[in-house]
Amino acid sequence: MKWKALWNEWKYGFYVMTHPFDGFWDLKHEKRGSMRAAHLHVILMVIVLVCKRQMTAFLFNENDVLSFNPFAAIGNAFLPFIMWVVANWCFTTLMDGEGTFKDVYIASAYALLPFYLINAIGIVLSYALTLETGAFYTLIQAVGIVYLGAMLFFGQLVTHQYSFGKGVLTAILTVAGIAVMIYLGLLFCRVVTNIATFVSSLIYEIRIRSV
Fold this sequence. Notes:
Number of helices: 8
Structural class: mainly alpha
Number of domains: 1
Largest sheet: none
Strand content: under 5%
Helix content: over 70%
């Protein structure tokens, strides 16, 4: 029974994908979705993007499949999503948004469905296309990204009850917030690396002098 409920909650994403305004409204107000289904959408997105990195036909795959790091691959797929959720929630909290963190997470997760479906289709089609028809593969990838952006945008409009203009401003601020997160993350990693290098050098010097 639980699996049937989860299936119904997950496949509701297809309604959201084709009727975004009504779909996102029902996600929040009619509880047509759930956190567990949202988690499933995120997990499937991560799986598809990892498979895309490793399994796309070599003609269209710019990654080195032999130097596969599963943790880096999962992080590259998951971190942009969670940064969007956190940044969007932070800014909408300051801008009188009506959505909670849970609402933002669920809406953003359901917005992923067309993105990972299109990418899954792209993996399969990459084996059927040639370099001469490669533009079609590029078009598929572009459609997936545009569709994702549109779904995230409509999701925040409905979730927070924003006007179009306020939604655009919030989306820009959210992207800026993500950029700041990335900068601070890189800065933190650099500081930690410098500290680790200094401590390692210090330990090495102490060992040399104690011999």
